Amino acid sequence: MNVLNSFALLANGEALDWNQIPEYSLSDFIRNVSEELELGARMVSFFALPEGSEKRLVAVLALDSSSVLCVSRSQPFSGSFPSLTPKYPEAHLFEREIYEQYGLLPLGHPWLKPVRKNLNVIQDPKNFFSVEGSEIHEVSVGPVHAGVIEPGHFRFQCDGEEVLHLEIALGYQHRGIEEALLGGPHRLSVYQIETIAGDTTIGHSSAYAQALEALAGVQAPLYALWVRAIALELERLANHTGDLGALANDVAFIPTSSACGKIRGDFLNLTALLCGNRFGRGMVRPGFSPIDCEPKRLALLSDRFEQTLRDALQAVGWFWDSASSRARFEQVGSVETSMAAKIGLVGLAARSCGLVRDVRFDHPTGWYRFAQVPLAVWPDGDVFSRAKVRWLEMQHSGEFLKEQFNSPPEPESAEKITRLAPDKLAVSLIEGWRGEICHVALTDSEGRFRRYKVTDPSFHNWMGLALALRNQAISDFPICNKSFNLSYCGFDL
C-alpha cells in the first residue's frame, strides 16, 4: 500500500476542506506517520485539536523532493498515544508541547519536561538531566543575562572545561499568541503576528498573509508578492550582517564587529524607507500591498542599497581575510549531517550541516516562483559553516535584490479579504532569515480560527545548539550560541 494514500496532499500556500483530510484510528494514524517519516518525509507541524471532551492529533509532513505537503488526522481520543520520539527525534518538542497544552501523554517519550508554561522548572532540579561522577560539576547561566536580551536558562554538565551535556529551558515569556488568535482573524491579529519574533516581522506576517489568502481563495497581486520578497531579503541581510558582526566581536575582531553594527542599521533603514518602520511593521497585509514604491523612491532605495551592500561585503570581507580569526570558528560546535536530519534542523542551521532545506527552493510560493535565489550550503556543521552560509546568503540576496529593483511589476488593484471559507485548513511556509516558518490555520463552520498553529524555526533548532556544545569547551558557548542566534520569543509563543 502506498502510505501517501493515508494523507491529503497539498502545495505550500494552499487550503483544503477539513473533511478531505483522512481520519484514522489512533494506532493507524501513528503507524501512517511513522511509515512516511521512515520514507524520508520530515515533520513540519504536529499538534492537538480539541473535539469536545476529547482531542485529536493532526500531522503535517513535508516531501521536499517533490514540493508536496501531506496532512492526516486521528480520530478523537483521550488519555495517551504512542510516542514517535524514540525513533524520530524531530517529534520530541511537538509531543512535549501536546502533553503540556492538552494533557495527552506520549507513551515512551524519553524526557517529558515542560516546554514553556511551567515557570517553576528552574527551581526543580528533577526537571534536569544529571550526570554523576566525582569530577562532574554544573554551570548555570541565566535566565537573567547581563545583556539586553530575552530570558533563557542554560545548564551545563561539565567534566573540567569539557561540556558533556547542555540543557536549555525556555518559556519565561509565554504570551499566549496561539490562544489570542482563536476566533479570529481579529482586528489586532495581524499586529500580534508581527510581534511573534521582533527580528522576523516580515517572515511571520508573510506566512500569515499567505495562510489567509489560501483560506479566502484570494490571489495576492504580483506587486504585493514582489514587495514581500524584497522585504524578506532585506530582513535576511540585516540580520545576517548583525550576526556576523556579533561573531566577529566574540573573537575580538573589532573592525568587522564595529562596522556591521552600523551597517545592520543601514539595512533596517532601507526597510523604513519602504514602509516607515525599520522592522517592516505594516508592510505585509493579506490580499494586497499597502506599499506603493513609486519610481523616485525605488531609485533612491536602489542607490542606497547598492552602497549598503558594498559596505557590508567589505566589512565582512575583512574578517575572512584574517586567518587567525577564521581558525577560531573551525571545528567548533559541530553538528553532523545525519544528526541534523534526525532532530529536524531547518533553515540556515540545516544548510550549514550540508542539508538542502530552503522553502524558497523546496516549496516556492509568491515571487519566488518567478525569481530564484541560489542556495547556500556548507557541509561541516560547525561555527565556521554557519558563518560561511550567512556570508554566501548575503551575496545571493544582494544580487537578487539588485535584479528586483531593476524590474518592478506594475501596481495592481486588489481585493481586501473580508471573510474566510469555513471548515478549511491551510498550510503556509515561508523561509525566514533563520529558516522555515510554518503557520497552520484551521477555520470553523463560521470561517473563524478554530486552531492556529505557529512553528518558528527556533522551535526546531534549539536542540541543535545543545548538541553543538557536546564535547566542547564551555568557553566555546558564546560563539556557538551566536552562530545559531535563535529566538527566545519565537519559541515562547
Give structural attributes.
single chain; 493 residues; alpha+beta; Cytochrome-c3 Hydrogenase, chain B; five-stranded mixed sheet; four-stranded antiparallel sheet
Would you mind describing this structure in some detail?
This protein is an alpha+beta fold. It contains 16 helices and 14 strands. Strands 1, 3, 4, 5 and 6 form a five-stranded mixed beta sheet that branches. A four-stranded antiparallel beta sheet has the order 2-12-13-14. A three-stranded antiparallel beta sheet has the order 9-10-11. A hairpin with a 4-residue loop joins strand 12 and strand 13 (436-443). The longest helix is centred in the middle third of the chain and has 29 residues, at 222-250. It starts with 7 loop residues before the first strand and ends with a helix.
What is the secondary structure topology, with strand pairs?
Elements lengths: L7 E3 L3 E4 L5 E2 L1 H13 L3 E10 L2 E10 L4 E7 L5 E3 L9 H11 L2 E3 L28 E6 L11 E7 L2 E8 L7 H5 L7 H6 L6 H16 L5 H29 L3 H22 L19 H26 L2 H7 L7 H7 L3 H5 L7 H4 L20 H24 L17 E8 L4 E8 L5 E7 L1 H12 L8 H8 L3 H4 L2
Parallel strand pairs: 3-6, 7-8
Antiparallel strand pairs: 1-6, 2-12, 4-5, 5-6, 9-10, 10-11, 12-13, 13-14
